[in-house]
């Protein structure tokens, strides 16, 4: 199995929209629903359903300083969590999602 660092780095690089969250987190579900309404090209990982989920979350915190979920990346850019995603103006979000 790939290390947490390798798994995260590859996920962010390979997927235009990459979200790391937890299945029971309402903010994760809200971010996922918002993005699903805008793009079909999203990869979503439930950290609580992976044996290495805590290692992945620790690496994500090290990477961007955020200890909570979700972690939203668009075009390899860290957007933030649900609040930060919701704060992105809709036209700007559409632009970010359409860039490849």
Automatic annotation (TrEMBL):
- Annotated coiled-coil positions are none
| Record key words, sorted | Disulfide bond, Electron transport, Redox-active center, Transferase, Transport
GO biological process entries: cellular response to oxidative stress
- Domain of life, per lineage: Eukaryota
Glutaredoxin domain residues: 17-79
One cellular component GO annotation, for this chain's record? nucleus
Q: Which PANTHER family match?
A: GLUTAREDOXIN 2, GLUTAREDOXIN-1-RELATED
Descriptive protein name:
Glutathione transferase
Tell me the organism: Dioszegia hungarica
